[in-house]
Amino acid sequence: MTARQSRMALLAEGKINNAKLSGYWEMDFLGAAPTANENQSSSFTPRQRQLWGQAAFNNGWTITGGQTWSLWSSNKKGIETRQEWIPATIDGQYVVGYDFARLATVRLTKNFHNKTWFAIALENPELLNPSSLTSPAGVFGPANGPTGPAGSTFAATNSLATDFMPDVVTKLAFEPGWGHFEVKGLMRVFRDKIPGNPLLAAGAPGSTTYSDKAFGGGIGVNGILPLVPKKADLILQANYGQGIGRYSDSTNIDVTYAQDGALIPLKEAQGLAGLELHPTPKLDWYFYGGDEYVGRDWYVGTDHKGYGYGSSLADNSACQQTYLGTDTKCQANFRNLQEVTTGFWYRFYKGPAGTIQWGAQAEFIRKNTWAGTTTNLATTTPKGSEAVVLTSFRYVLP
């Protein structure tokens, strides 16, 4: 039992001349100190979920700055803050296949007569989980600060990458009269640094440290279709790209390493389908299913060792069929993650005193891996699975 999902929020709004000004703060207690990070959402305690300011002008332009849901996340109305579509799950990490982040951003949005919206955002970057069967020596920058003679400006326990530039997200949203539809694009530029490696582009004159940059990004579509108005909604999301794992629900890997330390963004795909039912004013019932996939990219280096991700040279001989251990001979790389879940919320009371509700959720999650060298089918592609049941009681203040 835990009360850490308890949440507080403050909203301030006002009109000045031709603009509506807003400020919003939202927090909970799901942080994790001292190894907190900003990979997907601020996890410092107490956790800052959202903290932003906004100016919405009468001519349809809106400027937003601070921490809020990424523009890559789905909206349920236009492209508006506090109108994001969020799965109704009790699970605080939502559901596999859901694409989201809450991060520092500067966003510019244009509303065209409440039918079409366009937005572009510069968002706080973070390169996640670089991995290779054989890791090049001396590489720093991804998920760790500068080390060695130059020292470090980051705490060793915090995961912070030295990315080259902000992530750039653009989105078009349409509401033609039935449903809500989105098309979006993402551009990322990754960077690592390799001390004394002449194989990569040289850094500053006289420097013995070299940098490598790699482009990543992807495209995606989101849709909310009211099958039966106010009774049944179909939710669809799909993304494809290279190095987009940071925006997946599982915060998966973005890149792998080449032999010389160069970064190789990995091909990735994420998808989610959901059905949300509202049979009575007091009851909401949901069904979600999702999948996240990471492609393999590997080769044999000049040193005759395996490099890259998903290598068929991976030694999985110490793995078990349904257990991924930490043994050095259990090197299986993630291939895809799948989840199906269902749950409900029942409101006993909703009125002037607030809302009193109870919910329950059941979910099944399965993890699959890329095949390694062993011929024993019980270990060549080990799997992991988990069944979870959750329940929650909530009182929402009026």
What does this structure look like?
It is globular, with a radius of gyration of 23 Å. The longest helix is centred in the C-terminal third of the chain and has 4 residues, at 377-380. A hairpin with a 3-residue loop joins strand 5 and strand 6. It has 398 residues and is mainly beta. It has one helix at residues 377-380; strands spanning 8-16, 19-28, 47-57, 61-69, 102-112, 116-123, 167-174, 180-195, 209-228, 232-242, 255-257, 263-265, 267-280, 283-294, 297-300, 306-309, 334-351, 354-369, 384-396. It has a 15-stranded antiparallel beta sheet, with no helix packed on it. Residues 145-152 and 199-206 have low confidence and may be disordered. Helix content is 1%, strand content 50%. It has one helix and 19 strands. It has a single domain (8-396), classed as Beta Barrel (Porin), CATH 2.40.160.
Architecture per CATH nomenclature, i.e. the level-2 architecture = Beta Barrel
The helix/strand order is EEEEEEEEEEEEEEEEEEHE
CATH class: Mainly Beta
Structural class, please?
A: mainly beta
At the third CATH level, what is the topology name?
Answer: Porin
For the secondary structure, the number of strands is 19
The profile of the biggest β sheet is: 15 strands, antiparallel
Which strand order does the major sheet show? 1-2-3-4-5-6-7-8-9-10-13-14-17-18-19
Rg on CA atoms, Å:
23 Å
Helix content: under 10%
Count of spatially separate domains = 1
Q: How many helical stretches?
A: 1
